[in-house]
Amino acid sequence: MLVKKEQIKSSDKRIKFLLCGVPGSGKTTLALSSKRPLLIDIDEGVDRVSVKYRSDVDKVKTYDELIEDLKSPMINDYDTIVVDTGGKLFDKIIKAKVIEQNPKNGQTDGSLSLKGYGAAYVLFKNLVAFIDKLGKDQIYIFHANEQSNKVNNEDVISYRLQIEGKTRQEIWNDMDLGAMLEIVGNKRVLHFKQCDRYFAKGNHGINGDYDVPTLTGSNKNNFLTLLFEKYRQNIADEELEGNEELEKYETIMQEGHRIIEGACKGEITFDRAIEELSKLNFVSTSKQELLSE
Predict the structure, then answer these.
(1) Separation in Å, CA 139 to CA 83, 98, 292
(2) Would you state the torsion angle of the CA atoms of residues 12, 234, 189, 144, taken in this order, to the nearest 10 degrees?
(3) Interatomic CA distance for residues 15 and 289, integer angstroms
(4) What is the pLDDT of residues 164-205, one digit of tens each?
(5) What is the pTM of this model?
(6) Distance between CA atoms of 165 and 112, rounded to whole angstroms?
């Protein structure tokens, strides 16, 4: 189906967010600051979250069990599905499922074959699409591994997703946003700008670094709720601005064609037509298009 660009509406889209960081940086608590979250606790770490910031939890052991729970009518009570962690989802749930589907997807040592990695990514992609159709935001938490690399002949600590095989890069392709949560001094900072030290992914005005507030008894754990609202509002503003510019463009093109047609019919001189064209408030490519005619 062909869709005109002015008909594309993305401001109500569901957000897919990858959150990574080292153990102890507060990833789960931050993920639960999303709107009405359900925690898929594959990592079995909800007990490490302060009691007042916990959410409802779904404890699953198999892929089929996960899908069954996501199909439950009770899922309507939640706006966000939080998977903790993506690495455990891949290692414990998805890997077991693809080997069950086809033993050739696995090897004798229990790891995946090359074919198995491809099948595992497809299954992950299908899971993301399934949750998306449920109308839920998605947050995938990943532990980050520290690696020492040389950058300009200096040792630099970098971070990569803790996940088996080469799937880590492909997983990023399915995400709208991705950020590295890091403790800098006495603050927690959420990085959306990619650099040599870590992968990240920002767009629609969500870029750069964000200080994550320290939670106290007086403030709510709603950081990601507000951030996702801002993301959607930014898209709505961009679409509104684009539609307004499109309307101006079409009005100018109609006026320009009227002037050019008048000159061609001899109703006005070509000098007069050029003068009138020069007075138009051009937007986008309207000037180049009209003057080239």
Answers:
(1) 6, 23, 50
(2) 50
(3) 38
(4) 766 777 888 889 999 999 998 889 999 999 888 888 999 999
(5) 0.79
(6) 8
